[in-house]
Give the backbone structure.
Amino acid sequence: MDIQQIKHKYGIVGNDPKYLEALNKAVQVAPTDLNILIYGESGVGKDIFSRIVHEHSNRKHAKNGSGLVCVNCGAIPKGTIESELFGHVKGAFTGADKNRKGYFEEADGGTIFLDEVGELPLDMQVLLLRVIENGELIPVGGSTPIKVDVRIVAATNVDLEEAKKKGRFREDLYYRLKQIPIYIPPLRERKDDIPLLFRKFSNDHAEKYNMPPITLNDDARSYLIGYHWGGNIRELKSLVEEISSLETTRDIDLNILKRYIQYVPEEKMPVLVSNTDEKLSFSERDILYKALDMSKQINDLRKEINDLKMYIGQLADGRGFSPIAAPIAHPQFPMIEENNYPTDGTLHVLAPNKDMVQPEDDFLESFEVEEKNEDKESSPISIEEMEKMMIIQSLQRHNNRRASVAKELKISERTLYRKIKDYGIESKRKKR
């Protein structure tokens, strides 16, 4: 069976040289019993390659039927993973009322596909290595080894080289799994395949739901090709299905497409200056994407700071403080002339006047808030002193319940305790 027939059989679309190289390698090594490690980003279609390897091998007629057992190592709870992989005997643990075969015994004579193999705990890696080297396993609670003949196809989106260096993945297991490595490129490295895949998913969705397929104009197609595609083929398929389901028009232009995906086109991104005319590498592009994301986070942080200023102003206004000069955009705080702003970095407010609302008598009867080394001057006071007053008043309002104070001030209890200590605020019950 040639590559075109294989692509047709498995619904594979694309002519990218790197992708075709991976496909050729999978078909070429399929008749052997060598272990295969498929690596690439999440969503590139590693599971399809495991099927191609198995169904073009002599193991496809294994005694267990399909002969291919698929296991997602990252989805198995840590406490049950040994039992899931290697089985258990009756009475091995609470609830083990009968013997149970594990995935490896079920795959005996066939192929086992270990997806997300990089998520395996270290103790499981040792047991997996024993299965590979000796061809035998011991069920949980058992004492007699069981012989199994299993070919392993593993897949990972984790950098196992880096995990090996950091001690999170065994070196001996890494090289036993990587007898034949197959790299599947991400979608952003297969730019010419993106419109082809878009058309395939559009036609598939239209046929399934009996509707006309959606199409892209030239601008929308160029915009689609330039997108980063962090979720790869899975993300593209989801996008096509979303647009097909929600849009009434079948001709998708750039304005419609931008309602579903947004990014800065490469030609409008900052240029890294160098002495050569080389294009940006993919790592450099990733840095720029992260820089743009960081810029958004900074803007969000500025908004939160402005909201905090508003909140401080509202607390001051509602607790009997009459502002004299506060450069805060608060509707009840009249702004003064710019040349009258204080230049010493302080926030000028009047001290509590005689008419300010006092705490209820039962508060004063039960609690007394003492301040250490409090500055008795009325004006000016710093923002730190303003914050100190807010904490003291909140303690009074909430009967010294610090959890309630932290919730009102929108800070953590740990931060509140630290500020109480830093500002020298003490609270104690009055003796009756």
